[in-house]
Design a protein that fits this description.
Structural class: mainly beta
Mean pLDDT: 76
Strand content: 25-35%
Low-confidence stretches: 141-161
């Protein structure tokens, strides 16, 4: 469980809504190699008007209606903390229109520089030390990791940057 008071990394399954369900007319997004899919999102019981966050997704099958995905959630300025736990649903929106559902399988808090924040240590219980797992011989290893962590500097900067509109009082959507 992570309280979304800052950026968090999520992994789960995305289900894109069909045009008949009110989803994207063009179907599931097809981001290119250089860009993630970026949109807005919220976690029920909040709504797009009172709980909006930014979302950037990557490592998903372009054009697939249902696909595993990874990404980050960045809360909007002034929104209260929201609890993100495995099994929760994140509503992906374009504006206020829902276009997809992300079922969260894993969640990890991120530091402002995009590095994972270690989980708080559970109650210390004496256990026998275990040796670290051996890396696979055919996988490149950088700094002890089989795969470098995903850096979300572009997406995080998009939502973390200061803009004059951030200081304007919020207004309800005229929908």
């Amino acid at each position: 469980m992570v309280m979304m008071t800052g950026s968090i990394a999520v992994r789960g399954t995305v289900l894109w809504l069909t045009p008949q369900q009110g989803g994207r007319v063009s179907g599931p997004p097809e981001p290119d190699y250089d860009y993630d899919y970026t949109a807005t999102a919220f976690l029920p019981p909040r709504t797009a008007e009172d709980g909006q966050a930014g979302i950037a997704l990557h490592r998903f099958a372009p054009g697939a209606w249902r696909t595993p995905a990874e990404g980050i959630l960045v809360p909007a300025q002034g929104n209260r903390a929201q609890q993100v736990i495995p099994g929760c649903i994140v509503i992906i929106t374009e504006g206020v229109r829902p276009v997809g559902l992300l079922t969260v399988d894993e969640v990890q808090a991120l530091a402002p520089d995009g590095t994972p924040v270690p989980a708080p240590a559970a109650a210390a219980q004496p256990t026998a030390p275990t040796p670290p797992p051996e890396p696979a011989t055919d996988e490149p290893v950088a700094d002890g990791l089989a795969e470098p962590p995903y850096r979300h500097s572009t997406a995080a900067a998009r939502w973390a940057s200061k803009h004059a509109s951030d200081d304007a009082p919020s207004q309800p959507a005229g929908v």
